[in-house]
Write a structure and sequence with these properties.
single chain; Glucose Permease (Domain IIA); 6 helices; 13 strands; about 35% helix
């Protein structure tokens, strides 16, 4: 109830105000609110206000911040997409001259390695071999049946491979009297080896052959009593003296 002018205020209103006055607290102290109680309220208000503004902007299509690339590759792709038509090249770490020098270095290294490997294979391969593997010596060098046998006979099954006894060049290859078919090979020291009675010849005159290379298939042609190779050695040339092939082979580390 409002108090009329000139009338005293109700005693209950006076009692609610007077205790503050009796407590001795000043008017300014009653009005001031402690900072510790106001600041959390202000901070909460600001956070709520900011969230509302952000929500409103999001609803109205405010542009969102673009996500950063997750890798160097994506960053590079983004760069290329933004500079369409512009050639982008990696930063060079060596010059063309340095790259060419490196190529030459590798080529030289490979050539040297290939040369070393070839030399190793050459050193490892045999220089002289028995003309027929697993053959049986059926007739030696010397007198036989009232004549002189100038070679050795190595018996083996028909069409067994026959090998060049050493490195050389084929002098002759083809039909020959008494032998049916024959091959003559000239070796580096001038000696000539002769192979006779083969079933077929696999080389041609002028061809270079290595020791152990197949030159023919064993046969029974000409004056022969069974499949075998007749092998001769002409010392110093085609017309040189015919020497014992067993001795010639033994001097070169090959046992018959």
């Amino acid at each position: 109830m409002r108090a009329r002018i000139g009338q005293e205020a109700p005693t209950d209103l006076l009692t609610t105000v007077r205790p503050h006055a009796r407590s001795g607290v000043s008017r300014h102290a009653r009005r001031a609110t402690p900072a510790s109680t106001r600041r959390p309220a202000l901070l909460l208000s600001a956070l709520l206000t900011g969230g509302v503004v952000a929500a409103v902007l999001g609803l109205h299509g405010a542009p969102a911040a673009s996500a950063e690339p997750t890798s160097v590759l994506e960053a590079h792709q983004a760069l290329l997409a933004s500079d369409e038509g512009l050639e982008v090249m990696p930063r060079a770490s060596v010059t063309v001259a340095e790259a060419q020098a490196r190529l030459q270095e590798v080529a030289a290294s490979r050539a040297a390695r290939a040369e070393a490997e070839a030399a190793a294979r050459e050193a490892a391969r045999p220089k002289f071999v028995l003309p027929v593997d697993g053959a049986r010596l059926t007739s030696g060098y010397g007198s036989r049946w009232g004549t002189f046998h100038y070679g050795i006979d190595l018996a083996a099954p028909m069409r067994t491979p026959e090998y060049a006894a050493g490195d050389g060049v084929v002098l002759r290859a083809g039909p020959a009297s008494g032998f049916g078919l024959a091959v003559y090979i000239l070796h580096e020291n001038g000696d000539v080896t002769v192979y006779g009675h083969m079933d077929s010849i696999l080389v041609e005159p002028g061809e270079y052959v290595d020791a152990g290379q197949t030159i023919a298939l064993l046969g029974n042609r000409g004056q022969s009593t069974g499949p075998h190779l007749h092998f001769e050695v002409h010392q110093g040339g085609e017309d040189g003296p015919r020497i014992n092939p067993v001795t010639w082979l033994a001097e070169r580390g090959v046992q018959v």
